[in-house]
Amino acid sequence: MQAELIAVGTELLLGHTIDTDSAYASRELAASGIDVLRRFTVGDNPARLEETLRLALSRSDLVVLIGGLGPTKDDLTKEIAARVCGKQLVMHEDSRRRIEEHFRGRVCGETQWKQAMLPEGCDVLPNDHGTAPGCVFRAENGCLVALLPGPPSECEPMIRDRLMPYLHRLGGGVIASLMVRTFGIGEGTAAERAEDFLNLVNPTVAPYAKDSEMFFRVTAKASSQEEAQKECRAVADRLCERLGSYVYAVNTDGTSQSCLENTVVELLAQRGLTVSAAESCTGGLIAKRLTDVPGASAVLNMSFVTYSNEAKHRLLGVPLEILDRYGAVSEQVARAMAEGVRRFSGSSVGVGVTGIAGPDGGTPEKPVGLVYLAVSDGEHTWVRRMNAPARFQSREKIRFRAASTALDMVRRLLCGLPMEEGPV
């Protein structure tokens, strides 16, 4: 099946809003073996939307339109799609009732009912996170057309929980997928190690990179969910063996929000251990990411943001002679920070991070992007040096990558895995 995506909204066209919906839809469709040939962005202009839709219908098996299903006058996606596809819009009573329930106890304007007007004969995709339902129907030429709401909080779950199962049923068979998540392995190295997996047909393995991580999505199609999951797991297990200690999680990609911080919190909880952090350039980002995870209160003891040398000395006990001799951004200071915060807090593990996130403050000897990271368990302390490459030369990206590297070091300590040697 070949598909095209059309994102509707002037705010997308002008760059005021980033189109994350189409990216998510592309990944989901591709993982299910549907080829996404083209993606378009069209403003709230009926003539241009009609032109783009007619062209897509003429050459694709599936056209997904995202956005323009709301109650306002410029929400015209349904009207245009219905006219182009030879459909009448009719009131869908169940969707109307859902809107009434949503506004129970509040004033509901007449314009809201517009959202319940759907193409006749369509299959409705209920919206569990908003008021505008989605739907799927056939155009006159047999092309499948899907209409989805624009807000990502509504669009993504509708794609995941409604549209993809619908397409799977339509195509026959059942699809299951697993996400193999890695950190610390470069894209080139990862692709080289997994090269033969990327040529598999069923299950398929699709890689993509984000925020210094590499993900491999394993997708299998079978006659039953149990069989599809079994095939996925077999390939995922082999892939994990190939990628080794870089793998930090394997899970279903959907409602799960598993990431490095989830893994670290889970490992600490399983072992009955605690962690504390002393952060300089990351400014509390490690603690923030840990506390984003439910249950973090059982494992995160305390966190310090020690930006100044005085704070490093007074709160963490970093010796002044080390600060004077080596400077705040150094292996010696990171080590002393990790050991100091662990000792002061009484935690099982201490983390220390110090570096230069920029955009200013760098020197030829210590450039922007240089970060030292340390973890200590009371018996041993490990230190790594991170040199952010050019593509990470923004303050936000340097800080995020440093926090991720620190979290991965904690993971490796807890799992008894070797710390990676050399600069990150």
What do you see in this structure?
The chain has 424 residues and is of the alpha/beta class. It has 3 domains: 2-171, Molybdenum Cofactor Biosythetic Enzyme, Chain A (3-Layer(aba) Sandwich); 174-251, 2-Layer Sandwich (Alpha-Beta Plaits); 260-415, Maf protein (Alpha-Beta Complex). 38% of the residues lie in helices and 24% in strands. It has helices spanning 10-13, 20-31, 46-57, 77-84, 93-102, 152-171, 187-193, 225-243, 260-271, 285-291, 309-316, 320-326, 331-345, 395-415; strands spanning 2-8, 35-42, 62-66, 89-91, 117-119, 123-125, 134-138, 144-148, 174-183, 204-210, 213-222, 247-251, 275-279, 300-305, 349-355, 370-376, 381-387. The strands form 4 sheets. It has a 6-stranded mixed β-sheet with strand order 2-1-3-8-7-6, with helices on both faces. 44% of the residues are buried. The mean pLDDT is 93.
